[in-house]
Amino acid sequence: MLRESQQAPEAESAFTQKTVDFASTHIVRRAIDVTAKTLDTQILSMQSAAREIFIKAFHPVVNQVLAELAHLARLAQPRRNPWVPWLTHGAAFVTGAALTWLVAAIWVR
Questions:
Q1: SS (H, E, C) 59-105
Q2: pTM of the model as a whole
């Protein structure tokens, strides 16, 4: 019984040490999980804030620059001549009439 009473404090100490080790391991795991979730939340909120700032600050400027560039591109395009389709039709008519007269002249001979 004397031996058992002397071994009891050692067993309690070993049990206590295992319990402390288990608890500290559990606390470290939970701290890592919470830290990872906090980091993900911060990254998402920073991305959202950056997106909002871009939309509010830069989007109007970008749209204005795009509108000006589109206007300059329209100015750089050569103006369409409204007479071109009529000239094409006229040339086709004259060519057709000339060919008709040519065929008629060859047939009459």
A1: HHHHHHHHHHHHHHHHHHCCCCCCCHHHHHHHHHHHHHHHHHHHHHH
A2: 0.44
